[in-house]
Amino acid sequence: MPRPDPATFLPLKTELSLILLSLEARPLHGYAIIKDVRERSEGGIELQTGALYRHLRRLLDDGLIVEVERPAGEESADERRRYYRVTPLGRQVVDADLARMSRLVDAARMQRTVRVKS
Amino acid sequence: MPAPLFRLLLRLYPRSYRRRFEAEMLETERHLTAESGPARWRAVPDLVASALAVRADLRRERRPAVSGVVMDLWFAMRSLRQVPGFTLTAVLTIALGIGAHTVVYAIVDAMLLRPLPFGDRSDRLVTLHSTHATQAPDWGNSDLSYADLLDLREQSRTLAAVEGFLERNFSVAATDDAARVPGASVTPGLFGLLGVDPLHGRMFRDDEAAEPGFEPVALISHALWQRLFGGDISIIGTPVLLNARQVTVIGVMPEGFLFPEQHQLWVPYASDRTAARANRAFIGVGLLAPDVAMGRAAADLNRVAATLATTYPDTNRGWGVHMLTLREFHVGDTRGVSSMLAAVALLLLVACANVAGLLIARGVSRERELVTRAALGAGRGRLVRLLLTEAFVIAVIGGVAGVVAAMWGLAVIVSTVSEAPAYWFVPRIDLRVVAATIVVTGVVTLLAGLAPAWRLSRVDVSAAGSSTRAAGASRGHRRFQRTLVTAQVAVSLVLLVGATLLARSAIELQRADPGFDTGSLLSGRFYIAGDAYDSPVARAEAVTRVVDAVMAIPGVTSVAATQSIPADDGAGTLMLRPTGALAGTATGADGINTMGVIAISATAGLWDTLGLSLREGRAFTQAEVLDPLTDVVHINERLATRLWPGESALDRTLQVVNARGVVTSTVRVVGVTPNLVYEEFGETTAQSQLNVYVPYGRSGSRTLAILARTSGDPAMYADTLRVAVRSVDPSFATFDVLTMADRRHVTTWGERFLAGTFSSFAVGALLLACLGTYGLVAYAAAQRRREVGVRVAIGATRADILALFVRGGVTTALAGATIGAPLALLTARGLDQAGLLFEVSPWDLWVWMPVPIVLMAAVILATLEPAVRASHVDPSEALRAQGT
């Protein structure tokens, strides 16, 4: 199978960016992802169960995240709990998306600067 | 949310999804409920919406991935929908260009490109004619003699078969009323050569072939079978009255088949080959042997002609054989249609330039969007593709609209055609034409879209949003736009000049003085059918009775029968040699002191009926009209001046010379007539302007025209004329009854059509050029709002600003006119050389004065509105608008 081009996933939805960023740091399970995203967005984004798993399914099927073994040291509160982390492709997509946003910000900043000058 | 409710809502998800995530989702929801209590109602809409979204996701993923092209198309349509004004203008412009092109192409296709309906033989069918060394170069092809036809059949090595036909008119008495039917005498094998079999009945047998007037059998067309015999199959084998003789119908040809043009009835021809070698009345039809080129066949036929000239010097010396493809024979003149094709190509170019200008102007207004796209990673190729796709969508919608308009336009055109063309010439918009239109649409996309796409895609991300750069770019775009408008004005000038010349020519043609008063003149034709009129005297008496019968109609003041209607018909050639005058009149290439003139037979009343008086001499007497051996003639003034300049022509004698150069009779001039025009206007030849008139009895032709001068509207007499002619003999069917004014209208149809088409193309191009200028000025005004603000702030008046923008538009138009003028001159000369101009000089001041003025006026008018708007700019507002 040919390696998918990270650019084909761009631009990412904000929720997807945040989920990928959460799973980049360490493997997490569903409820932990919701809490992590809540923290990262400073309470701005409150994922609900339905939306979360819809996103997870897409990320899994697109190969941006994978399911992993329960990390050592995580207590087993529930057998049904599953953990996910970012794949190398997922990491590339996050990087490409961040670069895109950064260029956008630059472009916007440049415009504002020049306008003020004229 | 309580677990049971959650479980219930989970049923909304697809089963596979539930199997995969249900446990996890319950677990996660349990945590969230623990966190914020069971009253988590916001989870309900989330779960429902997600379930639907997941289903949609899965459905979409199952479908094959949408390709980039489809994405582009979808995107282009969406973005075009956001600017309906722009889209509508561009689409209508393209529809105009493509519609016009489709109509013209359908005509060209039917005329020149589509295979003839004779299967694999279509490309191998030729017609055979004869030429003579002394023929004036502008004289058309002569026909072949039947004997020569048989010799060509036997001696040619390159033709697989040779047959021939002779056009004739038939009166068919199917009911009480005689119907006149155009038909032909054909050699029995002609339809076999064409590969067409009868639908019902059988083909001719060789033993049925006979001299005209003695044929025992006939074949009829499907249309005639339906019209006269109601499609009754029992007509086959039944005798019908054909030219007052009993002839058996042996078959019906397939539906749609007519030959050679709109002819509907055929009888088999044969003759004694020795009798008629000098009688050249046949058109040969040949089938080239497989893999024989036209050139080789022509050489072969010339060889046969040379042999015949040696074998039969009396009749064949100086005669050659001329071959045409069947299509050339039918179509003949392609100058009109090729000039139309050129004109429509120009119109299409103007339309493309216009849309290119529109795309540029729109592209500039969305520059921010393009810069952003480039910043987000779209490469230049991607942007070009995006912009080209828009041009493509416009071209396709415009193309579809154009084809629909063309179907309507073509129907209108076909319904106005007044002279029946060959039966297979049926212009229609079929798959062939649509395929060509698709190609044209592709070309239009590239022409209109490529340059704008290339220019607009040149965005510089690092300098994105810089207004200095934007100003530079838009200056460049403006220059490009100006170039486009210049080109449009130039092409419009070419089309306008061409159209005006052709329109002037058509008007001249319509107005051309035929030399007599056409106002209250009715004309018609009839055919003297039947064995009873085999003797010339019997025919002359019948014609006299017809003239008397028409004269008896109340309100008819004067009547004449003549072989040829002036300003419409030609006539046969007569070779004359002035008795005793040996010097200065030689016209023959072989040095024989003879000249070819056209001879027209007429009854005594011709000049009275035309409302003209003879320049010299007297009219024919009734006795002369009845006498087949009379020696009196009239000659027209031009011939008289040519033969006896400055002297009276009365009582001079002329010798009539046959093809062998032998004097067959001597005629005496008893009158000199005014000059009339024979052949249609614009088709006269050197020979057709030299006329000899002979009393009817001397020629005794069976097809005649009748002219009647009436008091009051001549159209009112059409029916009584038919009745009067038939009262002499029920088999005399009158046809082609028209007032002279209507006849003029019919004969100038082609020219009027060409002028009309050109004019509509020119007006279309002019409108587009004005639209382009309008867009240019409006765009410039918008771009330079700030500049205008500054100018007004430092004291410029409204008039100054108005002048600024009008000057811009006018400069562009002047540049276009300057480039267009030499091209228009070339076009004018080309039209003149193609013989499409009648009595109009290509340098006609009445064309060259008004056309550029109209063009400039239209362009200035187009600049006015946006210029006025620009001059009303409030400086403080204009400066503030872009200053922050």
- The total of helices of chain A stands at 4
Q: Main beta sheet of chain A, described?
A: 3 strands, antiparallel
* Mean of residue pLDDT values of chain B: 83
Largest beta sheet of chain B, briefly?
6 strands, mixed, barrel
Task: Kindly describe this structure.
- The complex is a heterodimer of chains A (118) and B (884).
- Chain A is mostly helical and 118 residues long.
- Chain A has helices at residues 14-25, 30-40, 49-62, 88-117, and strands spanning 28-29, 65-68, 83-86.
- The longest helix of chain A is centred in the last third of the chain and has 30 residues, at 88-117.
- The model of chain A has no long low-confidence stretch (mean pLDDT 84).
- Mean pLDDT of chain B is 83; it is low at 581-592.
- In chain B, α5 (84-113) packs antiparallel against α12 (335-365), α12 (335-365) packs parallel to α15 and α26 (798-833) runs antiparallel to α28 (850-871).
- Chain B is of the alpha+beta class and 884 residues long.
- In chain B, β3 (159-173) and β4 (178-186) form a beta hairpin.
- Chains A and B meet through α2, α3 and α4 of A and α2, α3 and α13 of B.
What tags apply to this protein structure?
heterodimer; A: 118 residues; mainly alpha; three-stranded antiparallel β-sheet; 4 helices; 8% strand; globular; B: 884 residues; alpha+beta; six-stranded mixed barrel; six-stranded mixed β-barrel; 22 strands; 52% helix; elongated
Topology:
The complex is a heterodimer of chains A (118) and B (884).
Chain A: H1 14-25, E1 28-29, H2 30-40, H3 49-62, E2 65-68, E3 83-86, H4 88-117
Antiparallel strand pairs in A: 1-3, 2-3
Chain B: H1 3-10, H2 15-36, H3 43-62, H4 68-81, H5 84-113, E1 125-132, E2 144-145, H6 146-155, E3 159-173, E4 178-186, H7 190-194, E5 200-201, E6 217-220, H8 222-229, E7 239-242, E8 245-252, E9 265-268, E10 280-288, H9 294-311, H10 313-316, E11 319-325, H11 326-331, H12 335-365, H13 367-375, H14 380-416, H15 431-456, H16 467-511, E12 521-527, H17 536-551, E13 556-562, E14 573-578, E15 595-602, H18 606-610, E16 616-617, H19 622-626, E17 632-636, H20 637-643, E18 653-657, E19 663-673, E20 691-695, H21 696-699, E21 703-710, H22 718-728, E22 734-739, H23 740-747, H24 749-783, H25 785-793, H26 798-833, H27 845-848, H28 850-871, H29 875-883
Parallel strand pairs in B: 4-9, 6-8, 15-20, 17-19
Antiparallel strand pairs in B: 1-10, 1-11, 2-10, 3-4, 3-7, 3-10, 5-8, 6-9, 7-8, 12-21, 12-22, 13-21, 14-15, 14-18, 16-19, 17-20, 18-19
Helix pairs in contact in B: 1-2, 4-14, 5-12, 5-14, 5-15, 6-9, 12-15, 12-16, 12-24, 14-15, 16-24, 16-26, 17-22, 24-26, 24-28, 25-29, 26-28
